[in-house]
Design goal:
A hairpin with a 2-residue loop joins strand 5 and strand 6. The chain has 13 helices and 7 strands. It is globular and about 70 Å long. The strands form 2 sheets. Strands 2, 3, 4 and 7 form a 4-stranded antiparallel beta sheet that branches. Strands 1-6-5 form a 3-stranded mixed beta sheet, with helices on one face. By secondary structure, it is α+β, with helices and mostly antiparallel strands. Helices cover about 40% and strands about 15% of the residues.
Length: about 350
């Protein structure tokens, strides 16, 4: 692996991005997304939180549904956590939703910040989100660095660092690139370039407006940059979901604090009495691979009965109202599997 040379030592290569080239590319190639049609800080904030670790195509329907239900700071801040989780469900990383609600209530109590420094005071808002909102909504020249920008930086400069060291180097470099004029568009152009051209695999170098000055392209190092940190071995976990349906209702229990998706609802994780396994739902949480074994309680067709106390507390929910209950996506898949089995 070649060491990363300081930018100043590479006289052959341009150390700053060609702003005119990137702006022209973005003007011609930018995607039309609802949060790009507004400078409303609430709308932009919601989009930035949803887009964390989630692809644009996945976020779009959730964003539209969210903005229809919670169109402003005051409406959202006045909702409760269960209402918010019910609209968020399926998007994953549910802590984002809780922190968004806490942040909205902070804004209603303290006012809407107009700078990156001010947004950093809002609960749940970090360096990237603060800079994104400040640049897009308030025209502050605050640079952002996400995974896309980090990748553009590594290839454009030939940086061989990885992990947190690469991230720190990118944050040090980015402020020197951002112009004072239309900084929000600049940040979005950088991220768009990384998302659509300078992609992790099979980057589209011939279409890149920065190709002439890109160190990785001109030295044949695109495939090796950015340097990938080896992933930790996946951890296998087994879980259980016991489905009991009767009189048009299903038994659910609330997920306790300290567990994934805490505060939401799930099928009971244990049960007393006869049951049979009808299938398995597989899903991934961070680096954990979870196999959720789905069991159908034999008495489900005939009558409604209570689970034993040592199997957790819960409640019966009408199947007609189940969509309004915040449940993680794997739990919904398990319930659908049981409903299908009952019809056999």
């Amino acid at each position: 692996m070649r060491p990363w040379m300081p930018l100043a030592s590479r006289s052959r290569w341009r150390t700053n991005i060609n702003r005119a080239a990137l702006r022209a590319w973005y003007a011609a190639n930018r995607r039309d997304m609802p949060w790009r049609r507004t400078r409303d800080p609430y709308s932009v904030w919601v989009s930035e939180v949803m887009l964390q670790q989630t692809q644009v195509a996945t976020v779009l329907p959730y964003y539209e549904r969210w903005m229809s239900r919670f169109p402003s700071f005051d409406v959202f801040a006045g909702s409760d956590e269960q209402q918010a989780l019910a609209v968020w469900q399926g998007l994953g990383y549910y802590r984002r939703c809780r922190m968004l609600l806490e942040g909205a209530r902070w804004v209603m109590a303290n006012g809407v910040p107009s700078s990156a420094a001010g947004w950093l005071q809002v609960p749940g808002v970090g360096r990237y989100t603060a800079a994104a909102i400040a640049s897009i909504c308030f025209n502050e020249a605050s640079a952002v660095v996400d995974g896309n920008v980090e990748r553009v930086f590594a290839r454009f400069t030939g940086c061989s660092l990885s992990g947190s060291a690469l991230n720190r180097a990118a944050w040090k470099w980015a402020p020197g690139q951002i112009p004072a004029e239309q900084p929000g568009d600049w940040n979005q152009a950088m991220m768009e370039l990384g998302a659509r051209v300078c992609t992790p695999r099979t980057p589209k170098c011939p279409a890149c407006p920065l190709q002439c000055d890109c160190v990785a392209f001109n030295t044949g190092r695109v495939p090796e940059l950015p340097v990938v940190v080896p992933r930790s071995k996946a951890i296998a976990i087994e879980g259980h979901a016991f489905v009991e349906i009767g009189a048009g209702r299903v038994r659910l229990e609330q997920i306790p604090d300290g567990e994934w998706s805490q505060g939401m609802w799930r099928l009971p994780a244990c049960a007393a009495g006869a049951s049979r396994q009808i299938g398995t739902v597989k899903h991934t949480v961070t680096r954990h691979r979870v196999e959720l074994r789905v069991h159908l309680i034999e008495s489900a067709k005939g009558r409604v009965r209570e689970l034993r106390a040592n199997c957790g507390s819960g409640r019966w929910v009408s199947l007609e109202d189940i969509e309004e209950i915040p449940m993680p996506a794997p739990q919904r898949r398990a319930l659908a599997m049981a409903m299908e089995a009952l019809q056999d």
